[in-house]
Design brief:
Number of domains: 2
Keywords: Coiled coil
Shape: elongated
Strand order of the largest sheet: 1-2
Coiled coil: 4-42
Largest sheet: 2 strands, antiparallel
Structural class: mainly alpha
Length: 134
């Protein structure tokens, strides 16, 4: 049977191993993220050099994107389906910059803009979770 000191020694060894693995994981993750950024930069540069520059979306693009999607789908759609359609059409552009982290907020802002422009029904005029054109 192991003594309390033996068990404590084993716990300390495992903690040391865990710390080492954690440091290796962080280093590996950083290397992978740097590699991904390098690929993104190369793709962006290649697209510009080839004359096929992709339009990187901006927040101000969302009202027209939403309007087009709604119009193409009979003027009414579930918010989740609109979100999926935006991602299907624009995932490349959305994932190329910080918009990747904000686009869900930004596309909801786009709906607010459409309401202020009187192009889309207000949230109290439509069923819950549904966006509708006027």
């Amino acid at each position: 049977m192991k003594t309390k000191e033996d068990l404590q020694k084993k716990v300390d060894e495992l903690r040391t191993q865990l710390q080492h693995h954690k440091e290796q994981y962080i280093k590996h993750k950083k290397n992978l993220m740097d590699e991904i950024d390098g690929f993104r930069n190369k793709v962006s540069k290649d697209n510009v050099d080839s004359g096929h520059e992709h339009h990187l979306l901006q927040k101000t693009d969302f009202p027209d994107i939403i309007y087009t999607i709604l119009k193409e789908n009979g003027g009414s759609m579930n918010i989740m389906e609109i979100s999926k359609e935006i991602w299907r059409r624009h995932n490349h552009s959305l994932s190329m910059n910080d918009m990747f982290y904000t686009w869900q907020y930004d596309f909801r802002w786009g709906a607010t803009k459409l309401r202020k422009q009187n192009r889309m029904k207000g949230s109290t005029e439509s069923p819950k979770g549904i966006w509708e054109l006027k």
